[in-house]
Amino acid sequence: MLFFSVNFYSQKTGIKGIITDTTKQPLEMVSVALLNPKDSTLVSFASTDKTGNFFITDVPSGSFLLQINLLGYKAFSKQITYQNNLIDLQTIVLNDDVNTLNEIVIAALIPIQIKKDTVSFNASSFKVNFDDNIESLLKKLPGIEINSEGKVVSQGTVVTKIMIDGKEFFGGDPSIVLKNLSADVIKKVEIIDKKSDEEELTGVSDGNKEIVINFTLKDANKNRGFGKAAAGLGLDNRYFGNANYSQFNAKTQLSVISKFNNINITGSNIQDFLENADGVADDSDDESKSTNSPPKSLSGFLETTVIGANYGRDFQKKESLNADYFYNASENYGFSETNRISFTNTNNFNFKSKDNFLNTTQNHNFNFNYTNKTSKKNTITLKGRFFSDDRNFFTDRKGAFLNTEDELVTQNDIVSNNSNNLVLGNVNFNYFHSLRKKGRSFTVGFVANINNTDKQNTQDTYINRNVNTNNPTNQEINTFRDEDIQTNTFNFRFKFREPLVGKHYLNLDFNTNFLSGKEITDQSRKITRTTSVEDFIKFQYNHQQIITKSNLFHSYNTSKLNISSGLELQNLLRQFGQVNEPQYSTEQLFINPNFSFQYKPKTGKKYQFSYRKSIKPPRPAETNPFVNDLNPFAIITGNVALEPEKTNTFQALVNVNSYDASIGYNLTLNYAIARHAIIRNVSIDDDFIRTISYQNNGEREIFKGDSNFSKRFNKLGFRITLQNKYGFNAVNSIINFNLNNVVSQDFSTNFIIQNNKKRNVDVKAGVFYSENNTSFSIENNLNRKFTTQKYFGMIDVDLIKKLNFNTQLDYIIYDDENFGIRQELPIWNAAMSYPLANKNHILKLVLIDLLNKNVDIFRRSTINFFEETTSQSLGRYIILSYTFKLSASNKSS
């Protein structure tokens, strides 16, 4: 009813017209912008259709400047006073403009331009503060959002690459670009629906486009250096410092960044750090956990040092080299408490622990990318990555096992020192060639991966069993385990396309993947009870895997419609076993159908459906038959008899985004069902020792739905965003020889409302709600539900011409039925900034967690337990900082 009434009312209000050239031919894709005459900020926008008609709806009352633009034609402007009545401008004629330099003038006037595959925003039309980076600029643009994982999403699609003046910057890593370049050096932001290299070469649409963001620098910043340096000191010895410098010209680009702080501001690859942050050897990283739990967040106290450099050079037109180096060192320490409820179907128990942790990491990351598109017939790309990572984890975990009557039974203290050293090398080569016949082409690709990991683990476990009885027993286990894991992967790909009739093509895709690896384990262990016993284990486990895929499929490709269907023939050869022992060898042949459909009727609209059957071989760790008992309470062993999983995956996607109507709707649905699924087999004895193995049994179902709706209401002066997510995960497990089906359902909704005019005041408020429900078939009395509520508000206001004030309040409520917990956390942050002189000197006062309530809560549910971990976090701190900006100009040029 709301949308019907808005649509009905808009027919009687708004601004409409027809745009033609001097020959009275209608002009399509003409940019029509309604601007605030005081500061040229965008009020509303539209573009013409094939008949040259445009209609600007949802216009607030007032006086505005109407600007009309199309490349190759002279810009048209007109003053308009709108009073909530329909204005019909009739026919507007655009005159030819032969001066191609006018494109520069046009970009400075029109806030938004829409071309066939590109949407371009004039950066000066969107308000940013004098010390903002380009991440803040992106958040202002319509149709752009930065999700909870820090990824940039445009029109419902994750942005895969960010470029500066058409060139890669730090390997195109969005997080580095967004957080290190100042917003005031940017002239234009382009959202590009980039064609694949094959499509650019052959002209045949294959539907394999990616979303790329290109930032165009202001002219004054292109041939001279720019950057900034900042430093701050605060209470409780808090500090930070960062600096960056960039210089770009027509042929080369050079950038240097550095950062150091102890206020929990991360460098790069933070998610990898979190996934390996638990020093105690257990099953926490197992892929078969049955929930859609969010990733771990950073807790404790973090000190970070980051240094990076990027260099790019164009040797000639369409031939370039880009390389970057990144160094990251961090130290994370703190304290956490965990409460876990476990069940075994015969002997349920609870586990509580208190952990002190200290995790450090140092890594070196070098990337390069060479591209040669100088020939009209072929394209060559060569990419490489060399990465070394040294991680050390210390954990002192004091645990207590309690029975269902909440009586203490066993205590343990695990002191763990783990060192992981990783060296990785990757080279990716691709050659695309277009043959004489139009549409006929082939691609040759080669990928090599070399991965060496050395794990040295020392774990001392002190166990006190039968604590509350007359016969307590003590045990000490000292274990040292050294694991050397080497994995080499080589992949060769050949693809050939043959045109048939019209837009029909026959495609052959041949892919061979060679994987070889070895795991050398050397373990010594000393067990002390009444007497001491020592044992030693040493083995080498080799595994090889060759996957050959031949995919023959038919495709129908046009600029709007792409349909393909085919069959893939997959041969899987696996050989594995211990050195000097009988080897296991299996070879299997699979037929995998696939189908895809994509329809893009116009810019901003896409409908997609795909189906694929795939085969997932067991991981080497799942087939390794040797015992990993580093943690005596979580013993893991593989199963050599495992068979591959067979998975059918369905995906549907709907993107409907209109810059004219300021509306966007994006929907993604994913469903996967695995037959012959690899599941976990867990047995738990009376001493709470979990022995974990794997077997093929039953099905695994995963469904994920994600919808995002946004609408701008110019008359009311605000914009709303509604995000909904739903996840369903069902998996079998074996618990003490009983089949257990675990079903986990996650739902979240996020509603945000914010003002449109952000020149002087930026206001945002919203509510977030998430709920997890996990049920167990053999212990339904332990079915679990926990919720998170978050209410938040933010205001950014220029109090006077130079003084900017920003504050945000988050109020979070955690509820958990099983743990009987209701925890309320108000978090209040604020900042004030003031520029000196010509805005190149900035003073800023930052106040974080003023109520000193900040803690971190992480919750997860697995196949036979669920737990909640509460960690101490940084808490309140106040910092006064000074920033110096080296900038060619503060004005748009």
UniProtKB/TrEMBL annotation:
The Outer membrane protein beta-barrel domain, residue ranges: 433-883
Span list, region Disordered: 278-297
Entries under InterPro entries matching the protein: CarboxyPept-like_regulatory, OMP_b-brl_3
Domain of life of the native organism: Bacteria
Pfam families on file: CarbopepD_reg_2, OMP_b-brl_3
Name recorded for this polypeptide: Outer membrane protein beta-barrel domain-containing protein
Source species: Polaribacter gangjinensis
